[in-house]
TrEMBL record:
Organism: Paracoccus broussonetiae
Swiss-Prot/TrEMBL cofactor(s): pyridoxal 5'-phosphate
Protein name, per record: Aminotransferase class V-fold PLP-dependent enzyme
Family classification: Belongs to the SelA family.
Entry-linked Gene3D superfamilies: Type I PLP-dependent aspartate aminotransferase-like (Major domain)
GO MF, one example: transaminase activity
Top-rank lineage group of the source organism: Bacteria
UniProt-listed PANTHER family: L-SERYL-TRNA(SEC) SELENIUM TRANSFERASE (PTHR32328)
């Protein structure tokens, strides 16, 4: 079984543990458990649990699989993509010197700046600049939030620069930034390696092909693996990143179970029928679009993922005057449906919410369709929620949830 949609809807685990049910149509979110693993990935994880194993041997196997998946010379696994950024930066700072690795993050030495275009200084649940700082690196900002120029990057890459970081993501501005090929050319002309954060990008080969020296992916997003980060690229930099496990990487380590699961997820991706998965996602989008198209003030539009990911979402525009409630109010109402539907609401201030079809189980496309019609035709209930509070929650809710925990 290679697809989530082959899982029947089954709430038995939530119910027996006393956890609230939820249907995720928002995408791969850390706060919702990343993604759902297929039985193959889950079985690989379970098989490793009751056994001892040599971690370096497992990581060497992971390196082979990462090389096959990405075309990289080598790779390793760590706790998350965020950890991968920190370890890759640390490796670029220390090289293969274990004493320097042990000196991080407080004594990184003179060559510890990391050049990043201002428009790439995003927050993906935490700030990318903090992932650099954890390695002892200092972020050297290039350009402005909407424009970075080639000569500005070149000027930033002096002898104190250990690496240049590039982010490919819907989280970053999509104009005015230096294209990756040019970015890599400028960096390489000055002997500076390029680290690419591509945590949720499906393009597993193209970024290395465009000149990246290291590319970092999440194992638990589109790949459907256990929580993990994949670091792929030039062998010397991969080895230097892996060396950090004697230092700052200790708290970011990945265990045998997640190494086994991530390997299975990568192998599965190589064998998966991507066309069939895409067709299922499109079927769900069609179903939803057809069901709500005629509703007053509701305009569902198919939109491609902002990066090159082969994925479409349904963007549901809401005209409050005609629909009876705002996009933010409906998003809130979906969260209170039975079962709660978590829609993609981080841009609700623009007057729409989105639906992501990539984490559906069998029968959920229909369940979501029914919930869409139910909630969108009951504007009176949705209108009870405070739009301003809902907009504030979309911005601050992620942090607030951590503060509210056990309060
Ligand atoms: C999700 C994401 C991360 C963080 O990935 P984790 O594996 O959850 O740590 C980093 N960068 C970008 C662009 C992301 O989308």
């Amino acid at each position: 079984m290679l697809r989530n949609t082959e899982y029947p809807i089954d709430w038995s685990w939530h119910d027996s543990e006393g956890f609230k049910r939820l249907v995720n149509v928002s995408g791969t979110m850390t706060s919702l458990g990343g993604s759902i693993a297929t039985p193959r990935v889950a079985a690989a994880t379970a098989a490793a649990m009751p056994r001892f194993a040599r971690i370096h041997e497992m990581q060497a196997r992971a390196s082979e699989v990462i090389a096959r998946l990405t075309g990289a010379e080598a790779g390793f696994l760590t706790a998350s993509a965020s950890a991968g950024i920190t370890l890759a930066v640390a490796g670029a700072i220390t090289g293969m010197d274990p004493a320097r690795a042990e000196a991080l993050p407080t004594a990184p030495g003179a060559r510890s700046a990391v050049a990043v275009q201002m428009g790439h200084l995003c927050e993906y649940g935490a700030a990318v600049s903090q992932a650099i700082a954890l390695a002892g690196g200092s972020t050297r900002i290039v350009g402005q939030s909407t424009l970075a120029k080639d000569y500005q990057l070149a000027a930033a890459l002096d002898e104190t620069c250990a690496a240049a970081l590039y982010v490919v993501s819907h989280h970053v501005v999509d104009y005015g930034m230096i294209p990756l090929e040019t970015f890599a050319e400028i960096a390489h002309a000055r002997g500076v390696p390029v680290i690419v954060d591509a945590a949720s990008e499906y393009d597993l080969r193209g970024l290395l092909a465009k000149g990246a020296d290291i590319v970092i992916y999440s194992g638990h997003k589109f790949l459907g693996g256990p929580t993990s980060g994949i670091v792929a690229g030039r062998k010397d930099l991969v080895r230097a990143g892996y060396l950090q496990n004697i230092g700052i990487g200790r708290g970011m380590k990945i265990g045998k179970e997640s190494i086994a699961g991530a390997i299975a997820a990568m192998e599965q991706w190589l064998e998966r029928d991507h066309e069939a998965v895409r067709a299922e996602e499109n079927r769900a989008l069609d179903l939803w679009q057809d069901a709500i198209s005629g509703l007053p003030g509701i305009t569902p539009v198919r939109i491609p993922d902002p990066t090159a990911n082969p994925l479409e979402r349904l963007q549901v525009w809401v005209d409050p005057a005609k629909a009876g409630a705002s996009a933010a109010q409906f998003a809130e109402a979906f969260g209170r449906n039975d079962p709660p539907l978590i829609v993609r609401g981080h841009e609700v201030e623009h007057g729409y919410f989105q639906l992501d079809p990539c984490n559906l189980m069998q029968g959920q496309a229909e369940l979501v369709r029914d919930a869409l019609v139910k909630v969108l035709t009951d504007a009176e209930s949705a209108a009870r929620f405070d739009t301003r509070a809902a907009l504030a929650a979309a911005r601050n809710g992620g942090t607030q949830a951590y503060m509210d925990w056990l309060a």
